[in-house]
Amino acid sequence: MKLTMRTFGVLFLGVMCALGFAQEKAETRRVEFTVVDKATGKTIPCRVHLKDAAGKSQRASKLPYWNDHFVCAGKVGLNLAPGKYTVEIERGPEYELHSDTFTLEAGGTKKLAVVLKRLIDMPKEGWWSGELHVHRPVEDIERLMQAEDLHIAPVITWWNKRNLWAKGKLPVRPLVGFDGNRFYHLMAGEDEREGGALLYFHLNKPLAINEATREYPSPLKFAEEARKHKGVWIDAEKPFWWDVPVWVAAGQVDSIGLANNHMCRDRMYESEAWGKPRVVERFPAPLGNGYWSQEIYYRLLNCGLRIPPSAGSASGVLPNPVGYNRVYVHLGKELTWEKWWEGLRAGRSFVTNGPMLRVKANGEFPGHVFTSAEGKELKVEIKAELTTREKVRFLEVIKDGEVESRVSIDDFAKTGSLGTLSFKSSGWFLVRVIADNAKTFRFASTAPYYVEVGDTKRRVSKSSAKFFLDWVKERALRVKLADADQRREVMKHHTAAQKFWEELLGRANAN
Fold it and tell me: How far is CA 40 from CA 2, 43, 117, 121, in A?
């Protein structure tokens, strides 16, 4: 094409118009948020979910961001394109959720003042929050904990072949305290392979797991190595991982993730990943995975095992905010790192991703062991307090793995009572509440209470012991290792687990 002056002029004008249009599209306007606590009038750290009309999440420059949210100290400004936006602002489950929409017009700065009302002050009641599965950058942890009003958070800095300390010095003091009552530990780790995931806490250096393959060596090799260090804590990250009955049989599980990362803020991960799959007809999606986790946990308790429930969100890997799944431990007015873990071991706790469920039975906190003489009926009166942002239809008392009673929220509101339980033989019970949420398993559950009647201290269910015996047999058939020596080394743990469950089945004293 011959380029004439006329053609050149038309092309030049077109280019300039296009550039002008692009510049106009790129124009932004300023929006500033100020978030204050209603009771104090002071700005408070919080989490912000900000989306445009198309549902795209917006970031705030230089502030910690993950998936669909960022956190701030209470004041934040962003440059956004004009248009409609939705915003949700939270500070953990002890505050109301602020939800709003606004339109950002062309020209000027829009200032939005947000007031968050505290629904309940759990530390004032002696309850202190923590979560055990955090994958976020170390440099962001303090801001994240403040924004979620979280008090305990071990940070996973080594995980399979990833090791934050591989090319640097280990921290001299891995335990860090700040704000007077918040603590995090820099040396938490995760061994996540074919049999599932174990979380490690309180170590001073990573375990040498970086050369491990999917099946070799057994996770129990590293668990045994970890136990050489005083005070180590091992968490079975989910109940449905294939190796859970093997780990339990070996006595290596200090807690188990009842509120786990398949439960997310606005969705469920509906499958069991590479864990033991549920029967979907019994536990349909989307909430079936949550009920499956609970059934497995109840079966462990039915075997006379006393393992406290734990909670983890896997923020940094899965979509959750830090502390979405959390465990509250009752300590009284003073929190220390050591006392929190002692309280968790004692089961003086409840797990939640929403409702605040505080229960006492005969005036005692969860984890208590009630005793009674043989032939004498033990009666336990259960009282509770519930604070929740979501609709709840009823509270349930679980006794020996079954729903013993269901109390409507209206009846509960009148008395705060969940009735009286009677025991003529040893067993256990707990209280749970499940919110009406069609997207995700939003719930709270106390740790178990235990009942010992006469000389039979623990109830061992024949059907539950057989459930795990069948499980370990099925798992053993799944082990695929071509090297004979490696296979022999791994299989000895599965053989030992089978023997454990066979012996337990032989000692069963209940159906």
Answer: 74, 9, 10, 13
Q: Sheet containing 417-423: which strands, arranged edge to edge?
A: 356-361, 378-387, 417-423
What are the start-end ranges of the E strands in 105-166?
Answer: 109-116, 127-130, 152-159, 162-163
Residue owning tokens 């090297």: 483
Torsion of CA 418, 419, 423, 429, to 10 degrees: 0
pLDDT mean over 469-497: 98
Cα gap 214→463, rounded to integer Å: 31
Under a CB-based contact definition with an 8 Å cutoff, are residues 387 and 355 in contact? yes
Instruction: Answer for the pair 267, 68: CB distance below 8 angstroms, yes or no.
Output: no
Contact status, residue 298 vs residue 290, Cβ threshold 8 Å: no
Which residue is it, tokens 């248009």? 83
- Which pLDDT does position 388 carry in this prediction? 97
DSSP-derived 3-state class of residue 502: helix
Kindly report the pTM of this predicted structure. Answer: 0.94
Closest CA to 421 of 394, 400, 443, 392: 400
Amino acid occupying residue 339: K
Residue 172 confidence (pLDDT) above 90? yes
Dihedral (C-alpha) 276, 289, 150, 256: value to the nearest 10 degrees?
-30
Q: Which two tokens stand for residue 433?
A: 């509440």
The pLDDT score that the predictor gives to residue 27 is 86
pLDDT tens by residue, 99-109: 999 999 887 89
CB atoms < 10 A from the CB of 292, how many?
24
pLDDT recorded at residue 107: 79
Q: Count of residues for the chain?
A: 511
